[in-house]
Amino acid sequence: MASDLIAALATAGGRSAIGVIRLSGPGAPQCVEGLFAPADGKPLTAHEPGRLIYGALRDREGRLLDQVLCTWSKAPHSYTGEDTAELQCHGSPMVLSLALEALFADGARQAGPGEFTRRAFLNGKLDLTKAEAVMDLIDAETPAGARTAAGQLSGALSRRGEALYSDLLDVMAHFHAVLDYPDEDLDPFTAEVLKDSLTKARQGLADLLSTHKRGQVLARGVPTAIVGRPNVGKSTLLNALVGYERAIVTDIPGTTRDTVEETCVLGGVLLRLMDTAGVRETADPVEKLGVERSQRAMEQAGLILAVVDRSAGFTAEDLDLVRRAMDTAPTLLIYNKADLPPALSPMPMIALPDSAALSAKTGEGLDKLGELVAKLFPNREVGEGEALLTNARQAEAVSRAKTGVERALSALENGVTPDALLTDVEEALSALGELTGKTVREDITGRIFERFCVGK
User: Fold this and answer.
1) What is the pTM of this model?
2) CB 3.0 to 4.6 Å from 218: which of 92, 148, 210, 258, for a disulfide?
């Protein structure tokens, strides 16, 4: 498809060993030829595409800027499917800025966020699941997260989605072939055949949908709310888990007024920690807002760490909070301040969640907490080629496809004729098409690529 020429810095800003400038679009290598002179004296495009060429980078007045490496690719054999070029410079912000200015003056424009990958999608080089995997790979914070993204980038989810799409398409094609060519020697389209095909499709969609929770944990981590009464050590625990003083810690109750967010890896699991205000009755309007935000954090959490001050004993307020946490999300009970003598208060006579006694101040017992987290979220190795749904968009598309198939099966059982119930199959096909991008809307793709950094 026709497009203009874009350019952007593809490496992080600031000083670095290497800085990469990327171009894509018609005339990309010719634009670079205005600045780059290969050491062997031949023009860039006289060299074989895909090879790294050494030479001099000059500004528009011909003044030497850097000694660099350059490569170019010819459409459609490139990441974007267009003519592309790439300059590998020393990581001087000034050199990179001057080079970009010269490229913009010669007809390129600044690329927007994710525009290179968006062009790859629009030109059929990537589908949406692979495009999303690119960003997941860049954002990966654990080895398992990186391997998951690499698997999806290799096409694991695409292949699974395409297989399910193909099965449903076969159902539609069989029906229309029998309808349009009654004199041909075709297998009859019976209710039994249709039911078998739809039942198989429903199970396949259900199996794929069941991977969503695990895929989200691997790709984005577990939203984790740290809750408890004031001064039980919630902020100290957050600081201990992240390894530095991220949250303010004082002996004054009510210090934390807003949720403080940070990430850590515990028990091999990525946790997105939310340190919340102490939960208690208060007349302070600001602290009251903090308590309300604590309640919302619990509702959004995939894991709740309910903290109790072991040196003060288990109170009625602790019990009420733990009960609410257990009713909301998977919960671990933390008896903090294990470095102090324990209070001799009676334990509540209810079933409590798994617990760990620890000292957030000294770090003693954090390993035990890590074991409990790993038990709740087993970090099973992602098999090569294993398809996982890693975000809500993907899960929503598969869920709608499954609903369409279930409606078709229900209609079939109620005696609806195949020509009528296949409307539901068409809706399922459309939803599956959104998974890979066959039928996705422009506003959806826009939101996806807005997540990307400029230059990718």
Assistant:
1) 0.80
2) 148
